[in-house]
Specification:
The chain is α+β, with helices and mostly antiparallel strands and about 120 residues long. The chain is built from 2 helices and 5 strands; from the N terminus they run αββαβββ.
């Protein structure tokens, strides 16, 4: 069938776990958490000890995107899934950065201060 845009067969849970393991090896990351809604939405959290600049946070968010591409072996993975990411501080328990990667859109990063 020409013109058919079939969704790739990706084990998104396995990709998330591999990405979590990668980030847990980084010195600036305390721990990670991820979730998948079973459809299109991937959530990923990084916990940090130190304050980050928006530039550092953006680099980490892009590393998440790249890691999902690497572990899925599918460069266009973000054409099929939405990514909702945040960085939470151990120091004050606040979410200090959030990012969204919505299908068809560029990564959007914003600095926040949300205490859960």
């Amino acid at each position: 069938m020409s013109g058919c845009n079939a969704e790739p067969d990706i084990d998104i849970i396995k990709v998330s776990v591999n990405t979590e393991n990668l980030f847990r090896e980084l010195e600036e990351i305390g721990t990670t958490a991820s979730a998948f809604d079973g459809k299109k939405d991937v959530k990923f959290r990084l916990m940090v000890e130190e304050y980050l600049t928006e530039e550092e946070a953006t680099l980490l968010f892009n590393k998440i995107l790249d890691s999902f591409k690497k572990y899925s072996n599918y460069q266009d993975i973000w054409e099929y899934y939405n990514g909702y990411f945040d960085i939470k501080s151990y120091e004050n328990g606040a979410i200090i950065f959030q990012a969204n990667k919505i299908i068809g859109q560029d990564l959007k990063v914003k600095e926040t201060f949300i205490v859960e």
